[in-house]
Prior knowledge:
Blueprint: H1 5-19, E1 33-37, H2 44-60, E2 64-68, H3 75-83, E3 90-96, H4 102-105, E4 115-131, H5 139-148, E5 154-157, H6 163-175, E6 180-183, H7 188-195, E7 201-205, H8 206-215, E8 218-223, E9 248-256, H9 261-274, H10 278-286, E10 291-294, H11 296-316
Parallel strand pairs: 1-2, 1-3, 5-6, 5-7
Antiparallel strand pairs: 3-9, 4-7, 4-8, 4-9, 4-10
Helix pairs in contact: 2-9
Amino acid sequence: MKLNRRQFSMLALAAGASSVPAFAKGTYPERPIELIVPFAPGGGTDLSARLIVPYIEKYLNGTIAVINKPGAGGQVGAVQIARAKPDGYTIGFMNVPNTMMKPHERDAGFTVDSFDPIANLVFDPAVLATRADSKYKTLADVVAECKARPGKVTIGSAGIGSNTHLDLLRFEHLAGIKFHHIPYDGGAAPRTALLGGHLELIASALGDCQRFQKEGTIRMLGILTKERFPMAPDVPTYAEQGYPLEGGASRGLVAPEGMDPGQIAAIEKAVEQALQDPELIKKAEEIALPLVFMNSKEYGAYLQKSNQELAEAWKATPWVE
């Protein structure tokens, strides 16, 4: 059958339309995107999200609403992300190892495979901190007190199975000491308890403590990086104090499994541009928030590798508190 020019054009248009992803028929995003943060307002994960999101919006040309869904060490929010419709309008903040540890501890309602990786945004080094007026000045002071009062020195963390808890366990093992560990839900609550005089120490993150150290209310005793960290050069490493430990938490964006690859690519590109924005870089440096970009493929590989390491850690040293 011969086609005239009009018939050919109509068929070509129809064929082209059928090959275009659904989201591309309009301009993505066409409505606000919900970003679920599985931790309470004020903690490191929440602060990271709220600092970076406006710059992602800038390059995505869309609106992102940050919604806090705390509970069970990130499990509540993670389940909501995993069960959301993968239509590109619900994404989530993933904290590794904090949230990703939950499926190894119990039936959490999600696994690493419940999510499509979008991009990593932050890697926040772990720290040990106390109040600025505390008697503790070094890790040696802490170790000595723990040996004098075994199991009595109070320390708060972001929760059972969080990176701060895991770092605490490793420090106890290496130093031969035992703390009185009090787990919280996220990083903001233990910091508040410390400042209120309810804790002696906190296992925390640089991003959670830097502003308070600058204000003169918190003193960081050690940071879990290989060398002194450029954003906090006055904080000694654990290694230089005799305890060769490294640790921290990554924070990135994930989507429910099955999100359109084109939508993922759009957010991924906006994140990459955002993390190169001079204004954001300056603001992040002011609060010692290390911006670390990984694209979707790199971040996916990182999540799988971290998940395997967490499975091995749980198998070797399961904790019950």
